[in-house]
Amino acid sequence: MNSSTTTSTAAGEKTGRPGADRAAGRPGRRRLDSRAWAPWALLAPFLLLFTLTFAVPILTAVAQSFTRVTRQGVFGEQGVTTQFAGFWNYAQALGNDNFTASIGRMLLFGIVQVPVMMLLCTILALLLEGASARWPAFFRASYFMPYGIPGVIATILWSFLYVPGLSPLIDIAGRFGVEVDFLGADTVLWSIANIVTWSYTGYNMLIIVAQLKTIPNEIYEAAKVDGASPWRVAWTIQLPLIRPALVLTTVFSIIGTLQLFAEPQVLQSVSPAIDSEYTPNLSAYTTAFAYNDYNVAAAQAVLIALVAFILSFAFLRLTNRKSQ
């Protein structure tokens, strides 16, 4: 009996594991494996949904942008052939003057609209988080409420203020001898900018407010002891500390500018100045569903994403360089 115990102990020492562990089927190894797989099991639903709704459509669009489909016959009844097209679809997309003009139009839109919206949401956030602010919860909810209205509904509501004969603003301006055309070729872009600013200022404001709430009270107390005015506190304390929120909301706004779609599509029915390719997304939509050229539309979508990435990356590099 003593010899068998000695043999089992020696075998356990040689392998680095107790003999009882081997007899029980290595429960320590099994417990370790279950702990390693548990996070993946919890992440599996999200990863599956992310793959099906995000990764697969992107990869499909990229693949279609490099292929060319040729249909024999009117509806392809004589056969459909698919071949690698290289950058032919991209050349077609960039050769479309309406598409390139829409990108330039949205760049102008973003240069004006994004800074104005960021200035407004920052001022609102600082005012609502000030020590003298009254009913901040009520006003936060009021400013955020336009974001809860779908873009199509918001555009329809604003169109009643833009269309002559329906707009009280145009009637009031006419009484003073001022002619206003909110839907003209020179003004409709800024009418759309007004709708976007009205819709998203409250959303960006809440992100900045959330960042303001992370500032410790001790910093405010120290500034109060030093006799700092509210303007001084906002300029030297709050604005530097909410910089991450400002950068995040600006990047979101840059990306959203190139994704503009619902507002011009709705206003297209009341404004002759808006054509079917007024914005990049509207141009890709028209190419796909009006001209049935899905491969060129896929190339346009990839170019839109590429421009958004370049602008966002350039903005982040610029802000990081300034902070350093």
From TrEMBL:
Swiss-Prot/TrEMBL keywords: Cell membrane, Membrane, Transmembrane, Transmembrane helix, Transport
Stretches assigned to the ABC transmembrane type-1 domain: 103-315
Record's compositionally biased regions (Polar residues): 1-10
CDD domains: TM_PBP2 (cd06261)
Any Gene Ontology CC annotation: plasma membrane
Localization, UniProt: Cell membrane
Record's compositionally biased regions (Basic and acidic residues): 14-28
Gene Ontology biological-process annotations: transmembrane transport
Any Pfam family matching the protein: BPD_transp_1
Transmembrane segments: 37-62, 106-127, 147-166, 241-262, 297-316
Keyword hit for Cell membrane: yes
Family in the record: Belongs to the binding-protein-dependent transport system permease family.
Official protein name in the record: Putative sugar ABC transporter permease protein
Organism: Microlunatus phosphovorus (strain ATCC 700054 / DSM 10555 / JCM 9379 / NBRC 101784 / NCIMB 13414 / VKM Ac-1990 / NM-1)
